[in-house]
Amino acid sequence: MPLMSPRPRRSSVFLAVFALLLAAMPALLASNVHAASATKAKTWNVMVGAESSSGAVQTMAYGPKKIWINAGDTVHWVANSMEPHTVSFIDDKHPAVEFSPMTTYMTAPTSKGSISKPGQFRSSGIMAPAPDALFPDAVTSYDLKFKKPGKYKYLCYVHGEAMKAVVVVRKAGTPYPHTQAEYNAMATKASNADIEHGLNLWSDALGAASSHHVFMGAADMRAQVNRFIPGNIVVKVGDSVTFDMARNVFPVPHTVTFGPPPANPFAPTGDPTNFQGAALSSGVILPAGFGPPPSTFTVKFTKAGTYSYVCLIHAGMGMVGQVVVQ
C-alpha cells in the first residue's frame, strides 16, 4: 500500500498567506492614502522658467509641462527665472500674436481666480522674481482654481509657441497619478537638460565669434543666452565691430547701448560710424526674419579708451560688455 503524503498543516498555509499580505502591505497602505488624499482639494506647484546659476541661460518651459489634477484643485505657479513670462489661458479675443509690452492683455493679470472650462481667458500678467523698469507690475506667483474637468492648455505670451503646457483636470476624487515630489523631480530633470542645451548654444557661438564680430546672445525654442559673445574684446583705433543677432532663431530682442540709457530705449541714438565715447544705442534689434532690418549693428571706434555697454532689456541678468580700444 503506497504511503500517503501528509496534509499541509493549516498553520503553515495561514503563515504563508500572512507573509504575502505583509509583503504587499506597503503598497496597499500607499494606495489607500493616495486615494484618501484625492477626496480633498489640493494645491499644486508649477515652476515658470528656469535659469543657470549665473542667470546667463534662461529656459522657456514650465516645470512640469503637464500636470494631472482634480476638479476643485488649485495650481500655484512661481516665477523661477529673471526672464519675464506669463501663464495665459487664451481665447480668440486675446490671441498669442507677436509680443508687445504695449499690449495690455499680454502684460496685465485678469481678476478672476478660478476657471470653469477650457477656452476661458485667464492670465497671470508678467511674472518675474522682482519688478523692473520695463515691467514694474510684475508678479512673483499666480494661483488659479480649476472648477470642472477638461484639458486646459496655456502658454507664455512673451515666448509664444516655444513655451506651452497643459493642466488636465479630472473628476473630484480621482486618484492622482503623481505626487508633488514626483512633479518636482520631472521639472528639475527637464530644466537641467534645457540649461545644458543653452550652455552648448553659448559655446558654439563663442567658437564662431571674434573680437570684431560679437554675437548678441543665442537662442532657440528651448533656451536663450543673454550674454554678448564674447563679452570683452580688444581692438585698435579705426577698427569696426559688428554686433550680430545671427545666433538667435527665436525673436528675442536686444540692444547695444553705450553711455546713459536713451529716453526711448526702442529707438537708435548717436553715430555708430565715428564712436569716441558719446551716448550711442542700437535701439531694439530682432533676429533676421522677425523684425525690420537690420539685424546687425556695426560700430567704428575712432578714439582709444575703454567703453562699457549693455543690453537695456537684459542688463539686470548680466548682459553687459566692454570694448578696449588701443
Short summary of the structure?
With 326 residues, this protein is α/β, with parallel strands linked by helices. Helix content is 19%, strand content 29%.
Q: What secondary-structure arrangement, pairings included, does this model have?
A:
Blueprint: H1 10-37, E1 43-48, E2 57-59, E3 62-63, E4 66-70, E5 74-79, E6 88-89, H2 104-107, E7 114-115, E8 122-123, E9 141-146, E10 150-156, E11 160-170, H3 180-208, E12 213-219, E13 223-229, E14 232-235, E15 240-244, E16 257-258, E17 280-281, E18 296-300, E19 305-310, E20 320-325
Parallel strand pairs: 1-5, 4-11, 7-9, 12-15, 14-20
Antiparallel strand pairs: 1-3, 2-13, 5-9, 6-8, 10-11, 12-13, 15-18, 16-17, 16-19, 19-20
Provide structural commentary:
- Residues 1-38 have low confidence and may be disordered.
- The chain has helices spanning 10-37, 104-107, 180-208, and strands at 43-48, 57-59, 62-63, 66-70, 74-79, 88-89, 114-115, 122-123, 141-146, 150-156, 160-170, 213-219, 223-229, 232-235, 240-244, 257-258, 280-281, 296-300, 305-310, 320-325.
- The protein has two domains: 39-194, Immunoglobulin-like, CATH 2.60.40.420; 209-325, Sandwich (Immunoglobulin-like), CATH 2.60.40.420.
- It has three helices and 20 strands.
- The longest helix has 29 residues, at 180-208.
- β10 (150-156) and β11 form a beta hairpin.
- InterPro entries: BlueCu_1 (IPR000923), Cupredoxin (IPR008972), ET_Amicyanin (IPR052721).
